[in-house]
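Re-run requested by the PI after the first attempt was lost when the workstation crashed. Everything re-entered from the original request form. Ligand of interest: cytidine-5'-monophosphate.
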Amino acid sequence: MILALDFSRLNEALEMARSTARWVGMFKINIHLFTAAGPDAVRKIGALGPGIFLDLKYHDIPNTVAGAVSAASELPNVRLLDLHATGGAAMMRAGAQALAQSSNTRHPKLLGITILTSLEQADLRRVGMSGTPASRALSLARLSKRCGLDGIVASPKEVRQIRRGCGRDFLIVVPGIRPHGGPSRSDDQARVATPAETIRAGADYLVVGRPITAAADPQAAARAISGEIAAALQAS
Ligand code: C5P
């Protein structure tokens, strides 16, 4: 389980991270906390033990993305980085190449964002994208693999077909997790599933944010979700 630490203040993020670390495999820092607290957030949260998914979703010209990937790969304890697959093949290849040339021998793995879990078919049409979220996500996952990326980020609804299309060794990281018993559609996420359903579909990592960070008792929520994941893994 990757816990999304979407906070404006580093102290709040650190407090949440310390109190839930025993149930968490990695902490995720996205543009929210990174914009507020910068690389200091990566250093301080990374020092707690579980590694960091630095979720900055790069999307720019190839040279700029290569520079950003290279700089991020030098930060301590970063295990995953990501960029938008819709940024194109040249951009993805430049990012992968920057990592391959990194002086950090334990450099992070690079993921492509396929289609954001908040988007539905009508949203894609409005920005000129044809097809369903599932078909777009699969073709972007295949392109990410061809460009040398280590894996992708996709919604729970696309995990099964991406696993089939891209193979066992390709990392599939999945946000849009909403635990058993909760509403099937909540907040701004559109394409969601429970932790157990997502594990059964073949995901490698589940990204969970508000179901833990906004819970009345975050520790109890983290314990329950990690228990659901463990039970699903055991049964599979
Ligand atoms: O609170 P919630 O569980 O919805 O958090 C999901 C996290 O995953 C957020 O930090 C968001 O930035 C991130 N994310 C996402 N969809 C993607 C990639 C990342 O929701 N495609």
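Saved to the shared folder this time. The mean pLDDT is 94.
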